[in-house]
Design goal:
With 281 residues, this protein is of the alpha/beta class. The strands form two sheets. Strands 1-5-4-2-3 form a five-stranded parallel sheet. Strands 7-6-8-9 form a four-stranded parallel sheet, covered by helices on one side. Strand 6, helix 7 and strand 7 form a beta-alpha-beta unit. It is globular and about 50 Å long.
Length: 281
């Protein structure tokens, strides 16, 4: 089984029953309590899963002008993957306890590194337990490898300059909560509002009531209107800091709408420059 977008808890249990060789990455996190994800992992995690921290492992150095969660240097992240035992041939499952909002970031980043055999555990730790999967407090045993090879990315990005040049042409999709998108509140970033012309698709709308992703058919019907008549190549996803935008990217990919891009700096980078235009409402 080649992993692409989502894997169910039942599928993962079946893979583990066959002793399939794969790497599980738990990236649970809480923006308000940055150590909460690690504490939760220590208190009980999928057997064999490794913990990666959003700030320390999935982000690079912040300058105050490049957003709250800038992408790390590719060479540094290649070493992180090698430390986790990820080779070119390794299937990887990313998971969290927050509806996939952080697991989707890990999924996208592995594709950014050129790794295609990666999926998000649909429903995360809760779905795993509901399916009868055990939790463990034992430290996982894994093989440290050398740095992941330098491979061409499987995904594309836009930067602030290219987004600015593309205003009015690009289909910007903002994954933040509606009240943040409208500029009514801004708990994290320099200014309230959104990039002019951006459409709002709150990432939580990708999930059904049970916390799992909606079906590919449902997602496709909901996401197609975002494309307009330009196709996926003109779609650029953003959010507050390039994290939950990956949730929309994952939903698009799962719905068969491939080829959209990520603006990693997102609103936290855009709003750090008072000279960039903003919109409200």
């Amino acid at each position: 089984m080649t992993l692409k977008t989502l894997v169910s808890a039942a599928q993962l249990l079946e893979m583990q029953s066959r002793r399939a060789s794969l790497v599980l990455l738990d990236v649970s996190f809480d923006l308000a309590d940055v150590d909460a994800g690690f504490r939760a992992w220590c208190g009980g995690h999928l057997p064999g899963s490794l913990y990666l921290h959003l700030d320390n492992d999935l982000s690079g150095t912040k300058t105050g002008r490049n957003g709250r969660h800038p992408l790390p240097d590719r060479a540094n992240f290649a070493r992180t993957l090698g430390r986790c035992g990820v080779s070119v041939q390794t299937p990887v499952v990313a998971l969290d306890r927050q509806g996939g909002m952080y697991a989707a970031r890990a999924w996208w980043m592995l594709r950014w590194m050129g790794h295609d055999d990666v999926a998000v555990l649909d429903g995360g730790v809760g779905a795993w337990q509901a399916a009868g999967g055990p939790l463990s407090i034992e430290l996982p045993q894994h093989h440290h490898l050398g740095a992941y090879p330098d491979r061409p990315p499987l995904v594309e990005t836009e930067n602030a300059a290219s987004v600015a040049l593309g205003l009015g042409r690009l289909r910007l999709v903002d994954a933040r909560a509606p009240e943040r998108y409208r500029g009514e509140v801004e708990p994290l970033d320099a200014q309230a509002g959104h990039i002019p012309g951006a459409l709002n698709r709150f990432f939580k709308n990708n999930l059904a009531e049970d916390g799992r992703f909606k079906s590919a058919t449902e997602l496709r019907a909901e996401l197609l209107p975002l494309l307009g008549d330009q196709g996926t190549a003109a779609v650029v996803h953003q959010c507050g800091s390039g994290v939950t935008a990956c949730h929309n990217l994952l939903a698009m990919e799962h719905a068969g709408l491939t080829g959209s891009k990520l603006y990693p700096g997102s609103w936290s980078e855009w709003s750090s420059d008072a000279g960039r235009p903003i919109a409200r409402g």
